[in-house]
Design a protein that fits this description.
The complex is a heterotrimer. Chain A is an alpha/beta fold. Chain A has eleven helices and twelve strands. Chain A has a single domain, classed as 3-Layer(aba) Sandwich (Rossmann fold), CATH 3.40.50.300. Chain A has an eight-stranded mixed β-sheet, sandwiched between helices. In chain A, strands 2-1-4-5 form a four-stranded antiparallel β-sheet, covered by helices on one side. By secondary structure, chain B is of the alpha/beta class. Chain B has two domains: 189 residues, Rossmann fold (3-Layer(aba) Sandwich); 64 residues, no CATH class. Helix content of chain B is 40%, strand content 25%. Chain B contains ten helices and ten strands. In chain B, helix 3 runs parallel beside helix 5, helix 4 packs across helix 5 and helix 5 runs parallel beside helix 6. Chain B starts with a strand and ends with a helix. Chain C has a single domain, classed as Orthogonal Bundle (MetI-like fold). Chain C contains twelve helices and no strands. The chains are: A alpha/beta, B alpha/beta, C mainly alpha. At the B-C interface, helix 2, helix 3, helix 4, helix 5 and helix 6 of B face helix 8 and helix 9 of C.
Chain lengths: 323, 271, 298
Amino acid sequence: MTTAPALLQVRDLQIEFTDRGRVTNRPVRGVQLEIGSREVLGVVGETGCGKSITANAILGTLPEQARATGRIEFAGVEQLSLPERERAVNRGDAISIVFQNPGTAFNPVFRLGNQMRMVLRRHRGLRGRAATAIIAERLSDVGLTDTQRVMNAYPHELSGGMLQRVMIAMALLCEPRLLILDEPTTALDVTVARQILLLILRLQHALGFSVLLITHDLGVVKATCDRVAVLYAGRVVETGPADAVLKTPKHPYTQGLVGALPGQSGGRLRSIEGQVPANFLGIQGCAFADRCYAAIDTCRQVDPDLRPVSTTHEVACIRGGEL
Amino acid sequence: MSALVSTSSLVHEFTSHRSSHVALDHVTVEIEKGTSLGVVGESGSGKTTLVRCILGLLRPTGGSVRFDGAEVARMSTKELRAMRRRVGMVFQNPVMALDPRMTVEESIAEPLRVHTRLRGADLQRAIGEALDAVALPQAHRTRLPHQLSGGQCQRVGIARALATHPELVILDEPTSALDVSVQAQILNLLTDLRVERDLTFVMISHSLDVVRYLSDDVVVMLQGRIVEEGTAAEVLAAPQHEYTQNLVAACPTVESDSLRFALQSREETSK
Amino acid sequence: MAHVLIDPPAASPLPPTPRHSLLRTLLRDRLALLGVVLVVALVLVAILAPWLAPYPGEGRGTANVDAADLAPSAAHPFGTDELGRDMLSRILMGTRPALLISISVVAVAALIGVPLGAIAGYRGGWIDEALMRVTEVFQSFPPLLLAMVVVALLGPDLKNAALALAVSWWPWYARLVRGEARSLRERPFVAAAEAIGVPSRTILHRHIIKNSMTPVLVQATVDVGTVVLAAGSLAFIGLGAQPPAPDWGLMVAEGRSQLFTSWWVSTFAGLAIFVTVLAFNLLGDSLRDILDPRKAER
C-alpha cells in the first residue's frame, strides 16, 4: 500500500517511567507504527493501553520521568536522539496535535487570535498583517467564516464544536506534514462530531497531510482511517487496512473489541473478561493471555511479534493465522 | 398495564436575572411498568432536566409529573423520600459519582441508611447482597473509588442504585465514560438485572447503539421538545424526523461506510 | 443471583495501604522528615519539661539573684536572665504552655469556622452572604489589633489572649471551608447523594466537611506555629502571659533591655519561637501530600 518511504516510522518504541533510577512502569513495550504520506492511521485501544503516551513520544512531549528508547523516524530523521531544542522546532510546525477537550486546551485569558498569532511568530517569525491573513485563511478553511469575530473571541465565548474547529485551524497554521488527533470528537455531540470528522478528511484531502488518529471508537476508525493499529498493554497487537481489521479481526483482543459493540443484531454482548493490567512491568508472555478465549500454554511464555497474515495485515498472536 | 411514571405537558423554564431559557417545552411521556425508555438528544436538549423533574429535584414551571399515580410536585418531604426509595439512579461518570473518601460499603450503605431501618448485621448482609448482584467480590468492600477501575466503580454505582430494591432505575449515560469491552460488561449486567428484578428503566444516552440495545421505546429530544417517539427498533431503523435522521446518520459504526465515500460523492455532485 | 454473569471480576491486588506510604513519603522527603522530627521533639519536651529542665523551679519563675546575668556556660548552656533563672529551664518549661495555648486557639477557631464555612458554601444564598460579610468585618482588622481590643476589654492574661486570638482566627477557616464546599457542591457525588434522598444535614457532614478536611488540617498545622508567634507578640507587648510565667514572648521582652549586655536571653527565646514556627510549617506542607487519598500511593 505504501511503497513510498513512510513519513513516520516508529520502530520498537519502549517507554519506561523511572523514579530515582528505579523503573516503576513500562507503558509502551515495543510499538511499531508506520504512516505513509497522505495516509490516515488510526490507533485504537482501551484506556491505559499506551495510545496517548505514544503520541507524546512522537511529539517529544514525554513527562520528565519517562525515558524512551527505540527509533522514531520522521521524514527520514531519527527523532529520539535529537536534542530537545531541535525537536521543539518541529512541534506545532511539521508535526502538530489536536486535543480531546477543546474547552481546556486553550488559555482562557487570551483571545483566540492572539493564541494563534503566537504559533506563527514562533515558527515563521510572522507578525501583524501577514499573520492575520494566514489565520483568517485557515479559519475559513475550517468553516468559520466570521473570522474577525472568532479571532477576537475568548475561548468560553464559542461552543465546543466551534472551538474544536479553531484548534484544527491552529494546528494547520504551519501546514504540518503530520497531524496527530487525540480523541478529537469524544467530547462533542454526535452530529457535531460527524461534521468535525468530515472537515478533517476534507482538509486532509486538500492539503495532503498525514493523520495519526487516536481513538477508542471503532466506528470513528471505520469512518475515517486507511489503516489501523490496535494497541494492547503497550504493544501493537494487530495492524492492517481498517476494513480488513474491523471486518475480519485476527487477534482475539480486536475480535473482543468488535464483538463488544452493541450493534444492530441485539442479543448478548461479547465482552472481554477482566481488565487491562494497571502496570506492564511484570508481564510475561502475551499480555492478553489472561483475558484470551484462545490462550494456550505457549501464550504465557512467548510474547509474539507482529507476523503477516496477508500482504498488508499483521497480527501479534501465535495462533493469529487460525483464529 | 399502568404507567409507573407519566408527565403531561411538562414545562421547565430556567430564569436568571436577565434571560430565561425553556429547557422543557410541553413534554408528555408515559413509562409503563417493566419497560425501558431511552431518551436521546444532544447536550442542551433537556434530557437531564426531564430526569431531574421526574426525581422531584426540580420543580416544573408547568404541567405535571406523576409517579405511580401521585403528583410529584404535591408530595410532602416524607412522600418524596418514600418515592426516592423506589427510584435508583446510575450516573455518567462512575468514579466522580462516588465520594472519594468513602469505601465501597459506605457508599452502598448510604441509600440503605436513608431509606431503610437496616442496621448492624442486617445492613452488612444487604450490602453483601448488593455486591453479589453486580458480581463484585466481597473483598472490595473496604476499597476506595480510586483503588477501583472505571468499570468496577460503575458496578458500585449500580449496586448502590439497586440496594433499596427500587422499581424504577434512571440511567444517565451509564456507559459513555467506559471503554467498549467494559461497556459490554455493564450493558449485559443491566439487561440481566432488569429481567431478574422486573425493573423499569429510563436511560439518557447519546449513543444510539446503546439505546437500541437496552431500550424498548425511545423519545428523541431537541431543544426541550420531543420530536419523535416510538419503539426503539422502529425509530432507529426508519427515523421520520429530520433531526433523528441526522442523528442516526451521524453515529459512526463498524458496519457503516467510510465517511470518505460520503465525501467523494458529495464533491462529485458539487462539481 | 450472580449466576447470570459471565465475567465475575477477580479481586484485583490492593494498592499499598496509606500507612505504608506515609513512611515512604517521609523517607523520600527530607524536609518533611525534619518537620516531623521537630514536632515530635517539641511535644516530648512539652510533656517531659519538668524532668528535662536542669532547674525546673527556676523554669517556673523562682528567682535566684546570686546567679543573675550569667553568660552561656556548661552549668547554664543558655545563660541566665537578670533574676538569675536558668534560660534553658525557662525555655523548656515554656514549651508546654506555648503549644497548649496555640493548639487550643486553632481548635476553637476551626470548630467555629469549619461548620459555618461548610453551611455557607453548601447552602449559598443569603446565609452565605451574611456569613461572608461577618467574616470580612473580622478580617478587616489586623489580627493583633483585634486581639488587643479583646484583651483591653477583658484584662491581660493568657486565657483572654487565647480567646482574643481564636476570635480573630476563625474567619480564615470559615472562608477556606466555604471555598471547598462551593466546589464540592458541584461534584457529581454530591448530586448523587441528593438524588438518593440523603438529607442535607447528612450531606453536609458526611460529604462536604469530610472532603474539605485536608486543607483544614494543613492550615491548622501551619497555624499552630503561627499562633505561637502571635501569642508571643501579645505577651511581648504585655497583653498575654504575665510574669513570672515561662512564656517565650515574655522572655524576648524581658531580655530586650539588656540585648547588648546579655544577648542570650532574647536570642534563645526567639530561637524557640522560630524553631516551633518552622517545625509546624514543614509538617503542614508534607501533610498536604500525605493526606491526598490519590497522591498517597504514588
